[in-house]
Design brief:
Aldehyde Dehydrogenase, Chain A, domain 1; binds adenosine-5'-diphosphate; 39% helix; seven-stranded mixed sheet; 475 residues
């Protein structure tokens, strides 16, 4: 763990092992921190807050830019570690490191643009000055599916705003978190500004984060169930809260779309990170006119995907994170099958050629999905593309909106009016229009409803870590 400028073990001396999800091999051992360690990390962040908050935006921007440079320089090492620890193919890990580093650069630039306002008053002898200040100590909890970019997406804006940080990464990916910290430390971060607590059992750490009065803001990315618990506790403590949670993204293919282009897009998007992404399409609505062309395009593409260890050449889909994830995916597919769906490709756990050492599920297409199936309602977080054939164009937006989640949605159409109407009608925070990657460090990312509160990235991102302070000045 990294507390007050030093790498330290847990006070209890406990450790836990980190394994490769593709092989089951132990790849590292890290400190198993507890409530006391979390308290020490918060104390360090609190002690460093006033000096860090008093640095100039230019100083913070220069440090963040140096962190971006170091992370970019170490891209190959970081990507290879990510593939070992998290499982995604090396190409995807490399892309994630670039995306992660970009948050450091974007927020280095944003730091210099923190401004205030000179506001008019109704009184002739009064002026108003409004300024932005850092919220203070930030507690961050991050997930395993994007184990580097989800850290910088929080740390970049928090540091740019002038906040100190205590971060707890997912228990499956603490090594990536340590590697991110190494980049930031080597750039010259002052002691206490960034602190890292690793733990096998996240609950005691979460309890400290959400109840310690020195913590002013909680930022979380993970499941809706855990986000709801942490946000409620943080709310009780009147901490500021942003939570980026689950999704159940619709992917709508309109009658005026090119079904082959749409199917290629769906195939590229759905199997990224083995489907373990909150913006992964989970309900693919294909108009009846296009069902045949769409299925005939996606099925052979999915059949061709090579599954295996992400370090191997040509592998497109890696393992799932653990056994529970495989069981959840298998349960959804078996349920759909039992209720009448067809599974033209995949639909089983992969055990041959050494894959039994890891958590592999075959890239799968399910057709004839209907409302009574689990997969229609629940986030899958696995490599399964569920296809729903629809007839009535006027109903499809309502079908897509019929979920409490509201993160990403995708629309395929060649008609500008259809695209704009869909964008306006969909109750989701991120909408891809003929586009499978509607994300960037410079664009706001976040959801509505059960998908969370707040936005990360973009101009909005830094605002989550700032207070507004007003001075009324009598002349
Ligand atoms: P997933 O189901 O995708 O693994 P989780 O929401 O369980 O997602 O995990 C996301 C992050 O939340 C991880 O860092 C995990 O350790 C943490 N976490 C899980 N449960 C709790 C909890 N009760 N308190 C604090 N953090 C938690």
């Amino acid at each position: 763990m990294f507390i007050n400028g030093e790498w330290v073990g847990a006070r209890s001396g406990a450790t836990f092992e980190v394994t490769n999800p593709a092989t089951g091999e132990v790849i590292g051992t890290v400190a198993d921190g507890g409530a006391e360690d979390a308290g020490a990390a918060i104390a360090a962040a609190d002690a460093a807050q006033s000096a860090w908050g008093a640095t100039t935006a230019h100083e913070r921007a220069d440090l963040l830019m140096e962190e971006w440079r170091i992370m970019t320089e170490r891209s190959a090492v970081l990507a290879s570690l990510m593939t070992k620890e998290q499982g995604k193919p090396l190409k995807a890990s490399t892309a994630e490191v670039a995306y992660a580093a970009d948050f450091l650069r974007w927020f280095a630039e944003e730091a210099r643009r923190i401004t205030g306002a000179w506001l008019p008053s109704a009184r002739k002898d009064q002026r108003f000055l409004s300024v932005k200040t850092p919220v203070g100590v930030v507690a961050a909890v991050t997930p395993w599916n994007y184990p580097i970019s989800m850290l910088t997406r929080k740390m970049g804006p928090a540091l740019a705003a002038g906040c100190t940080i205590v971060l707890k990464p997912a228990e499956a990916t603490p090594l990536c978190a340590q590697a991110v910290y190494e980049c930031l430390i080597d750039a010259g971060m002052p002691a206490g500004v960034i602190n890292l607590v690793t733990a096998l059992d996240p609950k005691p750490i979460g309890d400290v984060f959400t109840s310690d009065p020195r913590v002013k803001k909680l930022t979380f990315t993970g499941s809706t169930a855990v986000g709801r618990i942490l946000a409620s506790k943080a709310g009780h403590s009147l901490q500021r809260v942003s939570v980026e949670l689950g999704g159940h993204a619709p992917f709508i293919v309109y009658p005026d779309a090119d079904p082959v282009h749409a199917a290629k897009g769906a195939a590229a998007l759905k199997f990224l990170n083995s489907g373990q992404a909150c913006i992964s399409p989970n309900r693919i609505f294909v108009h009846a006119d296009h069902a045949e062309a769409f299925i005939d395009t996606i099925v052979p593409r999915v059949a061709k995907v090579k599954v295996g260890e992400g370090t191997l050449e040509g592998v497109g889909v890696g393992p799932l994170v653990n056994e529970a994830a495989v069981a959840k995916v298998a349960n959804q597919v078996d349920d759909a099958r039992a209720k009448g769906a067809e599974v033209p490709v995949g639909g089983k756990r992969l055990l041959e050629a050494g894959l039994d050492r890891g958590h592999f599920y075959a890239p799968t297409v399910v057709t004839g999905v209907t409302e009574d199936m689990l997969i229609y309602r629940e986030e899958t977080f696995g490599p399964v593309a569920p296809i729903i054939t629809y007839d009535d164009v006027d109903q499809v937006i309502a079908m897509a909106n019929n979920t409490n989640y509201g993160l990403a949605a995708y629309v395929y159409t060649r008609d500008l009016s259809t695209a704009i109407r869909a964008m306006e009608g969909l109750r989701f925070g991120i909408i891809g229009i003929n586009d499978v990657n509607p994300t960037s460090a410079g664009a706001p990312f976040g959801g509505m409803g059960d998908s969370g509160l707040g936005r990360e990235g973009g101009h909005e991102g830094i605002g989550e870590y700032q207070e507004t302070k007003l001075a009324g000045i009598a002349l």
